[in-house]
Amino acid sequence: MTEEELLHAETFRDRVTTVTESGKRNWIYALKPSGRFYNYRNIVSYLYLIVFFVLPFIKVNDNPLFLVNIIDSKFILFGKIFWPQDFFIFAVGMIAFIVFIVLFTVIYGRLFCGWVCPQTVFLEFVFRRLEWLIEGTPGRQKALRDGPWTFEKVWKMVLKHTLFLVFSFLIAHAFLAYILGIDEVVKIIGEPFSQHIGLLVGLIVFTLLFYSVFAFVREIICTTVCPYGRLQGVMFDKDTMQISYDYKRGEERGKLKKTETRTLGDCIDCHKCVMVCPTGIDIRDGVQLDCVGCTACIDACDEVMDKVGFPKGLIRYASENQIANGTAFRFTTKMKAYTALLFILLVVMSVMIVTRKTVDTYISRVKGQLYQEVDGGKLSNLFEAKILNKTNKEIPVELKVEGMSGEIKLVGGQQFLLKKEAINDYNFFVEIPKSEIRERSSNITIGVYSEGQKIQSVKTKFLGPFK
Ligand code: SF4
Ligand code: SF4
User: Fold this and answer.
1) What is the pLDDT of residue 173?
2) How far is the CA of 143 from the centre of ligand 2 (A)?
3) Domain holding 367: CATH number?
4) % residues pLDDT > 70 (the chain)
5) Which residue range(s) make up the domain with 22?
6) Whose CA is nearest to atom 2 of ligand 2?
């Protein structure tokens, strides 16, 4: 081994690309990608941004489509309100989500990161795009950054950072709309700030947070901070689809000399794949945690291959096994099984959400109360009910004793009209003919009806005399 090769072997991937040898930040000036995948990602990002900003305005039955109000423990999914009482759905949902993430990653690698992660979409298709527009190519960006404070540098920096702050402010508002609902946000905007100091502080904090992430921290979120990114190493296997350099075809790499017959591999060592990489890595060094799967290097290399007349796909979506064995992408049995499982999990979750009760009733006998004998040869027990109305409308309900001739009488002129988004408390007597009560403690069923439709059956106990 030569001295140079020895040094290379010792220093090979011994630090992240965003850190220099002296431990300082290595600022990445990525080249603007172009090509087939970038065009597809462009479409995806436009749709994504439209959905992200429009979704808070969409309502179903007067409810936002999605709301994650952590402050008031109120969650709305697909227009349905979820309460802490629906925690089991969240628990199942979280388990399904984790299983989904793991299985998805085992099969598709960092597809999520490259295509729909908010960090990637906002950074690559909003903030970096503004930067390219204002400051120009990576070379110009570097010259501007390293150069003296000229008039050009001042106006470009001021314009760029002002736009970054404006977009961060918009994103913070959209996030707030997902937490409080768009009506509340519009109301807050229309009222004096002094009435919402807490929210104003929150908005400023989030704006500055987004601004610092997209203006300064950038790819470090993906390579160092994001737990999903850090977990990739344990989830990948040799069949995982990822962005791979075909070393079998590409090596031994070397410059293209038009005057000589090529005896080397297809990689002409042009470094285009490195120049477009937003995390600054060289995909030819093998699979790396720092690769966010953005496909920019595929496009860059395909363009080079086109120009030199070699087949495209030197860098492509492929598993380690496919590269090692030179086979094309195959949807393996394992992938099919995992995909089927993912599908089943999604179906189970959807069914749970769709079939979830919007009215939940808990009925129990009032403790310490015995039975009473009342007119008409009947026995009477006092019950209490807690009826949770999860909707944003008042709901009239009716309670009926099922399977026997019992009667329900509300105490103190109450009405079974459920207040919206509230737990409604009721006390009522259940009167049942003596002849139907044959035990000291009998099982009875109370049906809950709304607009003539039975929505729930609740079992409880009815006390009678010793026989
Ligand atoms: S872009 Fe392709 S040809 Fe150029 S260095 Fe990268 S892998 Fe090699
Ligand atoms: S290696 Fe390629 S796919 Fe991975 S982050 Fe860099 S450019 Fe994107």
Assistant:
1) 92
2) 24
3) 2.60.40.10
4) 97
5) 1-60+109-325
6) 297
Q: How far is the CA of 299 from the centre of ligand 2 (A)?
A: 10
| Between 15 and 463, the higher pLDDT residue | 463
**CA 33 to ligand 2: nearest atom:** 7
What rounded mean pLDDT belongs to the chain?
A: 88
Residue 1 pLDDT level (bands cut at 50, 70, 90): low
C-beta 418 within 6 A of ligand 1: no
Identify whether residues 149 and 252 lie together within a single domain: yes
187: amino acid identity, one letter? K
Widest CA span in the chain: 113
> What is the 273 CA–ligand 1 centroid distance (Å)?
6
Indicate if 183 and 285 belong to the same structural domain.
yes
Whether 83 is covered by a domain: the verdict is no
Are the CB atoms for 328 and 353 separated by under 8 Å? no
- Residue 25 three-state SS: strand
Mark whether 119 and 259 lie in a shared domain. Answer: yes
How close is the Cα of 275 to the center of ligand 2, in Å?
10
Query: DSSP state, 33?
Result: P
- Is 0.85 topped by the overall pTM? no
Nearest CA to ligand 1 atom 6: 273
pLDDT reading at 329 higher than 80 = no
Whether ligand 2 lies within 6 angstroms of the CB of 17 is answered as no
Asked if omega into 21 is within 30° of 0 (cis), the reply is no
Question: How much is the average pLDDT of 109-121?
Answer: 93
Q: Please check whether residues 25 and 136 belong to one and the same domain.
A: yes
Q: How far is the CA of 290 from the centre of ligand 2 (A)?
A: 8
Confidence label for 300 from pLDDT (cuts 50, 70 and 90): very high
Q: Is 223 in the pocket of ligand 2 (CB under 6 A)?
A: no
Instruction: Name the pLDDT band for 303 (thresholds 50, 70, 90).
Output: very high
Q: Which of 304, 310, 281 is nearest to 294 (CA)?
A: 281
Q: Which residues of 66-78 are buried (b: 16+ CB within 10 A; e: fewer)?
A: bbebeeeebbbbe
Ligand nearest to the CA of residue 316, numbered in listed order: 2
Average pLDDT over residues 366-383: 90
Q: Which residues of 286-316 are buried (b: 16+ CB within 10 A; e: fewer)?
A: ebbbbbbbbbbbbbbbbbbbeeeebebbbbb
Ligand 1 atom nearest 268 alpha carbon: 3
Other CB atoms closer than 10 Å to residue 319's CB: what's the count? 24
Ligand 1 atom closest to Cα of residue 297 = 1
Atom of ligand 2 nearest to the CA of 295: 3
Q: How many domains does one find in the chain?
A: 2
Ligand 1 atom closest to the Cα of residue 315 is 7
pLDDT score of 7: 66
Q: What are the tens digits of pLDDT across the range 392-435?
A: 789 999 999 998 888 999 988 778 899 988 889 999 999 999 98
Ligand that comes closest to the CA of residue 289 = 2
